Amino acid sequence: MKSILDNRPVLAKQVADVAEVAGYLWQKGWAERNGGNITINITDVIDDEIRNMKPISEPVSIGTTLPHLKGCYFFCKGTNKRMRDLARWPMENGSVIRILDDCSSYVMIADNPVKPTSELPSHLSMHNYLIGSGSSYKAALHTHPIDLIAMTHNPAYLEKDKLTYLLWSMIPETRAFCPRGLGIIPYKMPSSVELAEATVKELADYDVVMWEKHGVCAVGENIMEAFDMVDTLSKSAQIYLTAKGMGFEPTGTSMEDMQALKEAFNLPK
Ligand code: 13P
Ligand code: ZN
């Protein structure tokens, strides 16, 4: 079957990276059923032939207006599609969409009319924010890591930066590779524009945020970077839980040692 990826190695590689990460999410146990979603901004690698492709769907409303997305293109996981299937057959479980000139609707253009994720308002709002703020980030990831979600069921961890410091202090890598910490977004209805707006607000300070009692949302230069940050935070959560399981409260890296890491790695916070 013909695919938009044919003879487009750069685009094909980006979709292959999404598929690879989708496989990791399943292996991690973070992707029950259709849990989680991925979108990547592929506008940079779109050629004139793609620009002239006929839509394969009617226009669909996003539910919000996103002025920076006019004419942008995204590869999106399909709603109700499984990560484990996206891993093997990305173009059957995801699609390429074009944002229309009204900045509030999209059409699907390839390969199949697979309706994008129900979290599209959040994903596209994040991409809109990133473009508007001059960021080079192209990827957005939402997933359901068991350990990090469990922690949001304790009100004590919902206090601003409580989890950031706890998780940073479990292993130096988390301090270094998730340097903007972990934002917290109080519970909101999944898929809602309200959730999208709350998520975008936090991106000014964080690359990774928790959706209370639901999941995590990360943005990054590319999908591997976004995955790595969540993986690193989850590793820290595992260390914390393992220590607790052995019956003691982990000591945690001291603030002094964390400050030294900040200076050594030239970290933003
Ligand atoms: P989708 O299948 O629509 O992507 O939804 C999965 C999910 O995790 C919703 O929050
Ligand atoms: Zn979810």
Automatic annotation (TrEMBL):
Lineage, opening ranks: Bacteria, Pseudomonadati, Bacteroidota, Bacteroidia, Bacteroidales
The record's InterPro entries line, in alphabetical order, gives: Aldolase_class_II_sugar_metab, Aldolase_II/adducin_N, Aldolase_II/adducin_N_sf
Q: Which residues form the Class II aldolase/adducin N-terminal domain?
A: 16-241
Q: Which GO terms describe its cellular component?
A: cytosol
Keyword set includes Metal-binding: yes
Q: Name one GO molecular function term.
A: metal ion binding
Mind telling me what this protein is named? Answer: L-rhamnulose 1-phosphate aldolase
Supply the alphabetized keyword list. Lyase, Metal-binding
Q: Does the keyword Transmembrane helix apply?
A: no
Which NCBIfam families did the record assign?
PRK03634.1
GO terms of biological process kind = pentose catabolic process
